[in-house]
Amino acid sequence: DIVMTQSPDSLAVSLGERATINCKSSQSVLYSSNNKNSLAWYQQKPGQPPKLLIYWASTRESGVPDRFSGSGSGTEFTLTISSLQAEDVAVYYCQQYSKTPLTFGGGTKVEIK
Amino acid sequence: QVHLVESGGGVVQPGKSLRLSCAASGFRFNNFGMHWVRQAPGKGLEWVAVISYDGSNTNYGDSVKGRFTISRDNSKNTLYLDMTSLRGEDTAVYYCAKDRGYCSSTSCFWRGHFDYWGQGSLVAVSS
After folding, report:
1. Which of A111, B13, B77, B86 registers the highest number of CB atoms within 10 A of its CB?
2. Section B108-115 average pLDDT
3. What is the rounded distance in angstroms from the CA atom of residue B27 to the CA atom of residue A77?
4. What span, in angstroms and rounded, lies between the C-alpha atoms of A35 and A110?
5. How far is the alpha carbon of B60 from chain A, nearest alpha carbon, in Å?
6. Per-residue pLDDT tens digits for B58-82
7. What is the residue-wise DSSP string for B6-22?
8. Cβ within 8 Å, pair A101-B61
């Protein structure tokens, strides 16, 4: 199984500042057919289901604010919130869809400092 | 507008069975793979199972393989999860999720990431 490791477990960022979340996979998630990385990011607010933010490591889902961006390749990936807003308080998960079983990182809790 | 509504959760004794349903609307259900994902109280997300658009292919997470069965009825736009031999560690909120897949001229394919989720159904396994 591909193990997904997120860091940090939690972080507190001031409003308007940058938040950076890291995700590392135990093996490459590169999809050779399209040369894209099979990596997604989700946001989960308390009491709500997860929401898709990013797929193919860097493609923003429709309707997601452009302050959210994804980057990385191979085994190391990053989700960046360029200017943290109050509504961004949530837990963020990375997920690989390169191979089954599909696996998630343990989550990163983002709070306001 | 896509809607996924889970039902069938509740409290069940260890070793017993339970069936979850997920009613889908707002999209062409028979064109997309569907998944179940679960979340134990206060914990992270765990993928449970996937079924292809036509029900011909399924795949399961290691922890539920042989005990859970995913199925679908495209005439009713409904996804199911049959859970048997339930254990305490199966206690979780179970979400159904639509795959962000695609179709060619002849078939449809699931990708493995989820663009819509239901609100979830809580299953509590306890004596």
Report:
1. B86
2. 93
3. 32
4. 31
5. 7
6. 999 999 999 999 999 999 999 999 9
7. EE--EEE-TT--EEEEE
8. yes
